[in-house]
Write a structure and sequence with these properties.
The chain is an alpha+beta fold. The protein contains 5 helices and 9 strands. The strands form 2 sheets. A 5-stranded mixed sheet has the order 3-9-8-5-6. The chain has a 4-stranded mixed sheet with strand order 2-1-4-7, with no helix packed on it. The structure holds copper (II) ion. The site of copper (II) ion has 6 residues, from loops.
Amino acid sequence: MKTVFAPTLLALALATTALSVRAEEPKPAAPAAPAAPAAAAAGETKVVIGVVPAVMQYDKKAFSVKAGDKVSILFTNKGCPLQHNLVILKPGTDAKFGMAADKMIVADAAGAMAKAYLPDDAESKASIVAASTKLIGTGQNEILTFTAPAEAGAYPFLCTFPGHRFLMKGVMTVTQ
Ligand SMILES: [Cu+2]
């Protein structure tokens, strides 16, 4: 009986070794897999823009995105007592858009505030690439998600809270 068992056990041992080798085979490949998600997913850009307390300035005045990218901006106010918004506009429309905001404030201050100081006439609305939907006070934030324009260029962004836009501004550069 022993002579029958011995080769069986040997075969079993070999089979187990073969199995364990096979089971371990995928392991060397495993560490390579997580490397891909570490890099930002293609076609996606994430930006964080805060405000510098009390000086009417964004803490980031320039950033770049690729045309057609999915963009998400975390707009945050960690400690500024003033309220702000963030509006990204088509190239060259910032002066006219700002004046429309000022006009709206002069015409109806309470109404303008209710609209978060975003002018809503047809021309102004057509100038907007993306905008925060509310004014951001201390401790508040908003995420703006949008698709980056297809055309490369310099897209100005600004805050339309009365008097802020002259200091509170920056540029989103769209590249191909
Ligand atoms: Cu502001």
